[in-house]
Structure formats: structure tokens, C-alpha cells
Design brief:
There is one protein chain. This protein is of the alpha/beta class. It is about 40% helix and about 20% strand. The protein has an eight-stranded mixed beta sheet, sandwiched between helices. Helix 4 crosses helix 5 and helix 6 packs antiparallel against helix 7.
């Protein structure tokens, strides 16, 4: 991907073992799905924010991940978060994520190494960032480490986030009569299709973006 953006991921305490990951029919070996994602998506130059508890930050896994990300041309910054076992800690995590992502930036989220409840918290933060900070979410991914087979798939979950955003936009139309949120989603989809298809997409008949 041209340019740079913010790649969000997390890490646990222990060291990770080498795994063969597959995305878009391309295979690469590394202990971390997020590193495989960076290689396959060509994310060199992106800035990685690694969400980690204070204990995980000092663990073997963080050092291993930092070195692996650096080897593919990514800069790394830790973001210390609580474990998120209470309502207060959950909101602290949301606030930490919101604060660490620059407004109007391109964002990719990898949830492979996250605590099991963390993805729900991160999705909430991304909804806020999309609506109020103008970020462009380019992908949500999770490596299916326990999947059968030699090559473990990296699953693209972006459509789930987009679906929830469409639900919100349509609810806004129903409740207020305003189509602003729906038009914004339309414009984002138009932009995404243009990038994926080299500037041509099914919505290209519109000569300019719809008003937001």
C-alpha cells in the first residue's frame, strides 16, 4: 500500500513460535500474523501501535514482535493498557486507542494476539474514530492459528465492521430523516473500491463525491 498509516495490534506475555500464514493466496512464515499481514499488504513505512499490558510490555513476546515488525520496515510504539476486566478499565482502553490514532489517518487493525474480550473494545474505539476523527479503516484481520492445515489463514473481518457502520447509518436515517451518515458510508465505499480496482469501480459514474 502506498503511503503510510497506523497499524494497531496487541501482544501477550510469552514467546511465539513460527507459523505459516496465508492471505490472498500468498504464504509467509513468521510467529506473528500481523507481520505476515505487513509483508503481504506491503505496509513498510506504517507506524505500529502495539497495545500491551505493563506486564506484557516487559515480556519476551513484545521484544520478539518489535524485532519482527522492524525487520519489515515498520516503526513500533507501545501503548500501555489495563487488562480490561472492569467497566472502568474497558473505557480506559477505548480512550487509549482513541488518543493514539491520529485524526484522518489510514488504519488497519490486527486482533490475532489480543485478549479474548479486547476485540469488542477495539471495535468500539474504531467506531468512534471513524465517526468523529475521520479515520479511514482499511482492514480488520485475525490470524486463525488453530485452523486445520499447514498454512493458517488470516481472516479479513473488515466487512463486519462495515456492516455495523451501515446499521448505524440506516438507523440515523430512520430516526432523524438525515441521510448524512449514509452518504458518508457511500463515499467511503466508493473510495475503497477505487483503490482496490485501480481507480475504476461500479460507482465511478458519480463525477464527484456525494456531499457529507
Amino acid at each position: 500500500m502506498e503511503g503510510g498509516g497506523t497499524l494497531l495490534c496487541s501482544v501477550g506475555l510469552s514467546a511465539y513460535r513460527d507459523t505459516s500464514w496465508e492471505l490472498d493466496r500468498r504464504v509467509t512464515g513468521t510467529p506473528f500474523a500481523v507481520v505476515a499481514l505487513a509483508r503481504i499488504r506491503k505496509l513498510a513505512g506504517w507506524h505500529v501501535k502495539v497495545l500491551a499490558t505493563q506486564e506484557a510490555r516487559g515480556g519476551e513476546g513484545y521484544g520478539q514482535l518489535q524485532a519482527a515488525l522492524g525487520s519489515v520496515g515498520l516503526s513500533v510504539e507501545p501503548v500501555i493498557i489495563p487488562t480490561g476486566t472492569t467497566r472502568e478499565e474497558i473505557f480506559q482502553i477505548v480512550e487509549k486507542v482513541i488518543d493514539c490514532v491520529p485524526p484522518r489517518s489510514r488504519v488497519i487493525l490486527d486482533i490475532t494476539q489480543a485478549l479474548r474480550h479486547l476485540p469488542f473494545t477495539l471495535f468500539t474505539a474504531l467506531v468512534y474514530l471513524t465517526v468523529y476523527s475521520g479515520i479511514e479503516l482499511e482492514g480488520v484481520y485475525s490470524g486463525a492459528f488453530e485452523a486445520p492445515g499447514e498454512h493458517k489463514p488470516i481472516v479479513d473481518l473488515t466487512s463486519l465492521f462495515e456492516l455495523s457502520s451501515w446499521f448505524h447509518a440506516l438507523q440515523s436515517v430512520q430516526d432523524t430523516g438525515s441521510v448524512k451518515a449514509a452518504l458518508r458510508m457511500f463515499n467511503l465505499e466508493n473510495s475503497r473500491l477505487g483503490r482496490e480496482r485501480g481507480g475504476e469501480n461500479p460507482l465511478s459514474k458519480f463525477k464527484r463525491p456525494l456531499p457529507s
